[in-house]
Amino acid sequence: MMTAASLARTLGGVVTLWAAAGPALVLAQPIYRHLDRNGQVVFSDQPPAAGVQPLAPSGASALDGSAVGLPYELRQVMQRYPVTLYTRDACEPCDAGRALLAARGIPFDERQVRTVADSDALQRLSGQNVLPLLSIGAQQLKGFADTEWSQYLDAAGYPRSIALPAGYRRPAAQPLVALTPAPATPAGSPARDPVSASDLPAPAVPVPRGPSPQNPAGIQF
Fold this sequence. Notes:
By secondary structure, the chain is an alpha/beta fold. The chain has five helices and seven strands; from the N terminus they run αββαβαβαββαβ.
Protein backbone atom coordinates (compact mmCIF):
# COMPACT_ATOMS: atom_id res chain seq x y z
CA MET A 1 0.00 0.00 0.00
CA MET A 2 1.29 3.46 -0.91
CA THR A 3 1.78 5.65 2.10
CA ALA A 4 0.87 9.32 2.23
CA ALA A 5 4.56 10.28 2.04
CA SER A 6 5.23 8.11 -1.06
CA LEU A 7 2.04 9.43 -2.71
CA ALA A 8 3.20 13.00 -2.14
CA ARG A 9 6.61 12.22 -3.62
CA THR A 10 4.97 10.64 -6.68
CA LEU A 11 2.63 13.57 -7.23
CA GLY A 12 5.50 15.98 -6.78
CA GLY A 13 7.44 14.19 -9.52
CA VAL A 14 4.49 14.39 -11.86
CA VAL A 15 4.07 18.13 -11.23
CA THR A 16 7.79 18.71 -11.79
CA LEU A 17 7.70 16.74 -15.06
CA TRP A 18 4.64 18.70 -16.28
CA ALA A 19 6.25 22.01 -15.40
CA ALA A 20 9.34 21.07 -17.37
CA ALA A 21 7.38 19.86 -20.38
CA GLY A 22 4.80 22.66 -20.25
CA PRO A 23 6.79 25.33 -22.14
CA ALA A 24 7.61 22.88 -24.92
CA LEU A 25 3.96 21.96 -25.26
CA VAL A 26 2.95 25.61 -25.38
CA LEU A 27 5.58 26.41 -28.02
CA ALA A 28 4.42 23.52 -30.16
CA GLN A 29 0.83 24.80 -30.19
CA PRO A 30 0.15 26.77 -33.44
CA ILE A 31 -1.24 30.29 -33.12
CA TYR A 32 -3.61 31.64 -35.77
CA ARG A 33 -4.07 35.32 -36.66
CA HIS A 34 -7.16 36.60 -38.46
CA LEU A 35 -9.49 39.59 -38.74
CA ASP A 36 -12.82 39.59 -36.92
CA ARG A 37 -16.00 41.26 -38.18
CA ASN A 38 -14.81 44.63 -36.87
CA GLY A 39 -11.49 44.38 -38.65
CA GLN A 40 -9.52 43.75 -35.47
CA VAL A 41 -6.65 41.27 -35.35
CA VAL A 42 -7.54 38.17 -33.31
CA PHE A 43 -5.05 35.61 -31.96
CA SER A 44 -6.33 32.08 -31.29
CA ASP A 45 -5.12 28.50 -30.99
CA GLN A 46 -8.09 27.48 -33.18
CA PRO A 47 -8.00 27.87 -36.99
CA PRO A 48 -10.29 30.61 -38.33
CA ALA A 49 -13.71 29.60 -39.60
CA ALA A 50 -14.43 29.42 -43.29
CA GLY A 51 -14.79 32.87 -44.82
CA VAL A 52 -12.68 34.61 -42.19
CA GLN A 53 -9.76 36.62 -43.59
CA PRO A 54 -6.47 35.09 -42.38
CA LEU A 55 -3.40 37.27 -41.93
CA ALA A 56 0.06 36.59 -43.25
CA PRO A 57 2.75 35.94 -40.63
CA SER A 58 4.40 39.01 -39.12
CA GLY A 59 6.97 40.53 -41.47
CA ALA A 60 5.38 39.13 -44.64
CA SER A 61 4.49 41.66 -47.31
CA ALA A 62 0.96 40.61 -48.18
CA LEU A 63 -0.81 43.97 -48.25
CA ASP A 64 0.26 45.12 -51.72
CA GLY A 65 -1.77 48.31 -51.55
CA SER A 66 -5.01 46.83 -50.21
CA ALA A 67 -6.71 47.90 -47.00
CA VAL A 68 -6.15 44.52 -45.31
CA GLY A 69 -4.04 44.94 -42.19
CA LEU A 70 -4.35 48.73 -41.98
CA PRO A 71 -5.41 50.31 -38.67
CA TYR A 72 -9.16 50.27 -38.18
CA GLU A 73 -9.46 54.08 -37.93
CA LEU A 74 -7.49 54.57 -41.15
CA ARG A 75 -9.65 52.07 -43.03
CA GLN A 76 -12.76 53.89 -41.86
CA VAL A 77 -11.46 57.19 -43.24
CA MET A 78 -10.48 55.49 -46.51
CA GLN A 79 -14.02 54.15 -46.93
CA ARG A 80 -15.56 57.59 -46.37
CA TYR A 81 -13.02 59.67 -48.29
CA PRO A 82 -10.92 57.58 -50.70
CA VAL A 83 -7.92 59.45 -52.12
CA THR A 84 -6.95 59.35 -55.80
CA LEU A 85 -4.03 61.27 -57.32
CA TYR A 86 -4.03 62.07 -61.05
CA THR A 87 -0.57 62.72 -62.49
CA ARG A 88 1.62 62.55 -65.58
CA ASP A 89 5.30 61.92 -66.22
CA ALA A 90 7.88 64.75 -66.02
CA CYS A 91 5.63 66.80 -63.73
CA GLU A 92 7.34 68.40 -60.73
CA PRO A 93 4.07 69.46 -59.01
CA CYS A 94 2.88 65.86 -59.41
CA ASP A 95 6.06 64.61 -57.76
CA ALA A 96 5.58 67.10 -54.92
CA GLY A 97 1.99 66.01 -54.37
CA ARG A 98 2.95 62.34 -54.37
CA ALA A 99 5.73 63.07 -51.86
CA LEU A 100 3.29 64.87 -49.53
CA LEU A 101 0.90 61.93 -49.49
CA ALA A 102 3.75 59.48 -48.93
CA ALA A 103 5.21 61.57 -46.09
CA ARG A 104 1.86 61.47 -44.26
CA GLY A 105 1.30 57.80 -44.97
CA ILE A 106 -1.89 58.41 -46.95
CA PRO A 107 -3.06 55.28 -48.82
CA PHE A 108 -4.02 56.43 -52.31
CA ASP A 109 -4.52 55.24 -55.86
CA GLU A 110 -2.60 56.95 -58.65
CA ARG A 111 -3.97 57.40 -62.16
CA GLN A 112 -1.64 58.72 -64.84
CA VAL A 113 -2.49 60.69 -67.96
CA ARG A 114 -0.37 59.07 -70.67
CA THR A 115 -2.43 59.16 -73.86
CA VAL A 116 -4.89 61.37 -75.69
CA ALA A 117 -7.68 59.12 -74.39
CA ASP A 118 -6.44 59.71 -70.83
CA SER A 119 -6.38 63.47 -71.40
CA ASP A 120 -9.91 63.44 -72.79
CA ALA A 121 -11.08 61.35 -69.85
CA LEU A 122 -9.51 63.81 -67.39
CA GLN A 123 -11.29 66.68 -69.15
CA ARG A 124 -14.63 64.93 -68.76
CA LEU A 125 -13.91 63.99 -65.16
CA SER A 126 -12.79 67.38 -63.84
CA GLY A 127 -13.58 69.90 -66.58
CA GLN A 128 -9.91 70.79 -67.11
CA ASN A 129 -6.48 69.30 -67.77
CA VAL A 130 -4.44 70.82 -64.93
CA LEU A 131 -2.26 68.30 -63.10
CA PRO A 132 -1.88 67.10 -60.49
CA LEU A 133 -5.50 66.59 -59.56
CA LEU A 134 -6.30 65.23 -56.09
CA SER A 135 -9.68 63.80 -55.19
CA ILE A 136 -10.60 63.25 -51.53
CA GLY A 137 -14.02 61.69 -51.49
CA ALA A 138 -16.16 64.00 -53.65
CA GLN A 139 -13.74 66.94 -53.32
CA GLN A 140 -11.39 67.75 -56.21
CA LEU A 141 -8.27 69.85 -55.69
CA LYS A 142 -6.77 71.13 -58.94
CA GLY A 143 -3.05 71.83 -58.92
CA PHE A 144 -0.64 71.19 -56.06
CA ALA A 145 -0.81 73.41 -52.97
CA ASP A 146 0.83 72.01 -49.85
CA THR A 147 -1.27 73.98 -47.34
CA GLU A 148 -4.58 73.41 -49.12
CA TRP A 149 -4.02 69.68 -49.57
CA SER A 150 -2.99 69.28 -45.93
CA GLN A 151 -6.06 71.22 -44.78
CA TYR A 152 -8.41 68.94 -46.68
CA LEU A 153 -6.64 65.76 -45.56
CA ASP A 154 -6.86 66.96 -41.94
CA ALA A 155 -10.57 67.71 -42.30
CA ALA A 156 -11.20 64.27 -43.78
CA GLY A 157 -9.57 62.69 -40.72
CA TYR A 158 -6.35 61.34 -42.23
CA PRO A 159 -3.40 61.06 -39.82
CA ARG A 160 -0.66 63.69 -40.03
CA SER A 161 2.09 61.12 -39.56
CA ILE A 162 2.59 57.65 -40.98
CA ALA A 163 0.29 55.03 -39.42
CA LEU A 164 0.85 52.35 -42.06
CA PRO A 165 2.06 48.90 -40.96
CA ALA A 166 5.53 47.72 -41.85
CA GLY A 167 5.51 46.05 -45.24
CA TYR A 168 2.70 48.16 -46.71
CA ARG A 169 3.15 48.74 -50.41
CA ARG A 170 1.13 51.27 -52.40
CA PRO A 171 -0.52 50.02 -55.59
CA ALA A 172 1.42 50.84 -58.76
CA ALA A 173 0.22 53.79 -60.84
CA GLN A 174 -2.28 52.89 -63.55
CA PRO A 175 -3.37 54.72 -66.71
CA LEU A 176 -6.54 56.73 -66.32
CA VAL A 177 -8.20 54.81 -69.15
CA ALA A 178 -7.77 51.06 -68.90
CA LEU A 179 -6.21 49.51 -71.98
CA THR A 180 -8.67 46.81 -73.03
CA PRO A 181 -9.02 45.19 -76.44
CA ALA A 182 -11.74 46.81 -78.52
CA PRO A 183 -14.63 44.45 -79.38
CA ALA A 184 -14.79 43.25 -82.95
CA THR A 185 -16.85 45.55 -85.16
CA PRO A 186 -19.05 43.87 -87.78
CA ALA A 187 -18.20 44.76 -91.36
CA GLY A 188 -19.96 47.88 -92.48
CA SER A 189 -20.65 49.10 -88.93
CA PRO A 190 -19.20 52.46 -87.84
CA ALA A 191 -16.23 52.18 -85.49
CA ARG A 192 -17.02 53.04 -81.89
CA ASP A 193 -14.89 55.45 -79.91
CA PRO A 194 -13.16 53.20 -77.32
CA VAL A 195 -13.61 55.87 -74.65
CA SER A 196 -16.82 57.78 -74.14
CA ALA A 197 -18.40 59.81 -71.39
CA SER A 198 -20.37 56.77 -70.28
CA ASP A 199 -17.12 54.92 -69.58
CA LEU A 200 -16.31 57.21 -66.66
CA PRO A 201 -18.22 58.15 -63.52
CA ALA A 202 -19.81 61.56 -63.55
CA PRO A 203 -17.75 64.26 -61.82
CA ALA A 204 -18.50 64.20 -58.13
CA VAL A 205 -20.44 67.21 -56.86
CA PRO A 206 -19.50 68.23 -53.29
CA VAL A 207 -22.40 68.48 -50.87
CA PRO A 208 -22.34 71.85 -49.05
CA ARG A 209 -21.60 71.50 -45.36
CA GLY A 210 -21.25 74.13 -42.71
CA PRO A 211 -18.56 74.50 -40.06
CA SER A 212 -18.44 71.96 -37.25
CA PRO A 213 -16.11 71.32 -34.29
CA GLN A 214 -14.29 68.68 -36.37
CA ASN A 215 -14.30 70.89 -39.50
CA PRO A 216 -14.17 74.53 -38.39
CA ALA A 217 -13.36 75.75 -41.91
CA GLY A 218 -16.51 74.14 -43.31
CA ILE A 219 -14.56 72.22 -45.96
CA GLN A 220 -16.83 70.37 -48.38
CA PHE A 221 -16.51 66.69 -49.29
